[in-house]
């Protein structure tokens, strides 16, 4: 494996698989935050300490169990800024690690379902990703990886408070569980703004596609736990699962209502968006995300049968600014990105249509 392998494909291998409720839940993620007892937290440690943390993780990697998946060690000092942006757009590293220049690293599995960040906000952050609604499966894998790390390192832990982390909101289990959901039905029926406050009252938070501070492009929302202290990992995941299942039901009901009460308007919206994607010569990222969301809804409802959902998963990432520039071989001005984005979308949709026709 090499860095180029992780940059060349917009869709990670795990994203190509169908998961439970994958028409609404795009992915499930579990992240564990851990810190080593021998070092100060990232807000206070020196450059020498940061380098030593990276060196220790790399050294121990030789004993990493093969049954958990082979990992590629990539120091941030060897990753260019544009390449970091691509990895961030694929959710393989966080915006925080993307800003790290010399003293961080990321360990990636070949399937890209495991990402272990070193010297992000915490010394070690273990991330596991699964398609569809598979939070329990993601937690099980993350715990297996965590068990190995605990056999090799001493983590900062307090009997009363649990795992100690840089940000106080992560103290306790250090667990952030989240799901990425496509919720066009709730947005179009204007129900989501009423639901979000209720979700927040349950100790959960609704964010955009790239987490805190990001926009909900293409009606895609990330829902995660806010509380990590006072609950077990299993309880946190169960609570999130319970809410997510209710949101799935509400989204499905909203879609059914749209079909029953506004069928022709909905069909018109979907096919107008498909027309824009197939024929536009300039398209901004927000408009592209909106149209891709409409088309995905059209596929899920059976209006569109000649395009696969996988192509939309790919285009959601491929049309982001970093990936567009990486794909084009260098920096692009905003207008050039809009032109390249429209061209790329037209090409990929035509190719996918042709493939679907051949398979009939």
| Number of distinct helices | 13
Which spans of ≥5 residues are poorly predicted at pLDDT below 50? Answer: none
Overall pLDDT metric:
90
Q: Which H/E pattern describes the elements? A: HEHEHHEEEHEEEHHEEHHHHHH
Largest sheet: number of strands, sense, barrel closure? 8 strands, antiparallel
Query: How many beta-strand segments?
Result: 10
- Strand percentage lies at 15-25%
Q: How would you describe the shape? A: globular
What percent of the residues sit in helical stretches (DSSP H or I)?
40-55%
Distance between the termini: 35 Å
Radius of gyration: 21 Å
What structural class do the secondary elements suggest?
Answer: alpha+beta
Which strand order does the major sheet show? 2-3-4-5-1-8-10-9
Keywords: Kinase, Transferase
Organism: Rossellomorea vietnamensis
EC number: 2.7.14.1
Protein name: Protein arginine kinase
Description of the molecule:
- With 360 residues, the chain is of the alpha+beta class.
- It is built from 13 helices and 10 strands.
- It has an 8-stranded antiparallel β-sheet with strand order 2-3-4-5-1-8-10-9, covered by helices on one side. The chain has a two-stranded antiparallel ribbon with strand order 6-7.
- Strand 3 and strand 4 form a beta hairpin.
- Helix 10 packs antiparallel against helix 11.
- The protein starts with a helix and ends with a helix.
- The model has no long low-confidence stretch (mean pLDDT 90).
Summarize the structure.
With 360 residues, this protein is α+β, with helices and mostly antiparallel strands. The protein has helices spanning 3-8, 47-60, 81-89, 95-98, 135-152, 184-188, 192-201, 233-261, 263-279, 285-300, 309-318, 321-328, 334-359; strands at residues 25-34, 71-75, 105-109, 114-118, 124-131, 157-158, 162-163, 175-182, 204-207, 220-225. The chain has 13 helices and 10 strands.
């Amino acid at each position: 494996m090499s860095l180029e392998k992780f940059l060349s494909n917009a869709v990670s291998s795990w994203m190509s698989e169908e998961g439970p409720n994958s028409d609404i839940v795009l992915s499930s993620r579990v992240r564990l935050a851990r810190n080593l007892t021998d070092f100060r937290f990232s807000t206070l440690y020196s450059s020498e300490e940061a380098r030593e943390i990276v060196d220790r993780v790399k050294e121990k990697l030789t004993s990493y169990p093969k049954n958990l998946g082979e990992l590629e060690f990539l120091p941030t000092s060897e990753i260019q800024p544009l390449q970091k942006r691509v990895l961030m757009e694929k959710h393989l590293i966080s915006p925080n690690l993307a800003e790290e220049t010399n003293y961080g690293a990321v360990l990636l599995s070949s399937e890209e379902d495991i990402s272990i960040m070193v010297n992000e906000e915490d010394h070690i952050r273990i991330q596991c990703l699964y398609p569809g609604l598979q939070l329990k499966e993601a937690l099980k894998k993350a715990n297996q990886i965590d068990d190995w790390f605990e056999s090799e390192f001493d983590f900062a832990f307090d009997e009363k408070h649990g795992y100690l982390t840089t940000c106080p909101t992560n103290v306790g289990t250090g667990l952030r569980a989240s799901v990425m959901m496509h919720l066009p039905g709730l947005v179009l029926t204007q129900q989501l703004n009423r639901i979000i406050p209720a979700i927040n009252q349950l100790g959960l938070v609704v964010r955009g596609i790239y987490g805190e501070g990001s926009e909900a492009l293409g009606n895609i929302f990330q829902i995660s736990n806010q509380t990590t202290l006072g609950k077990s990992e299993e309880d946190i995941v169960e609570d999130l699962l319970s809410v997510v299942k209710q949101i799935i039901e509400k989204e499905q009901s909203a879609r059914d209502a749209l079909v029953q009460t506004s069928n022709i308007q909905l069909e018109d919206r979907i096919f107008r968006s498909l027309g824009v994607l197939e024929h536009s010569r300039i398209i901004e990222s927000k408009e592209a995300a909106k149209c891709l969301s409409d088309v995905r809804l059209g596929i899920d409802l059976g209006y569109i049968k000649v395009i696969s959902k996988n192509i939309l998963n790919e285009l959601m990432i491929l049309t982001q600014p970093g990936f567009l520039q990486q794909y084009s071989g260098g920096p692009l001005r905003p207008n050039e990105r809009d032109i390249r984005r429209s061209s790329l979308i037209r090409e990929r949709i035509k190719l996918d249509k042709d493939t679907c026709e051949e398979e009939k």
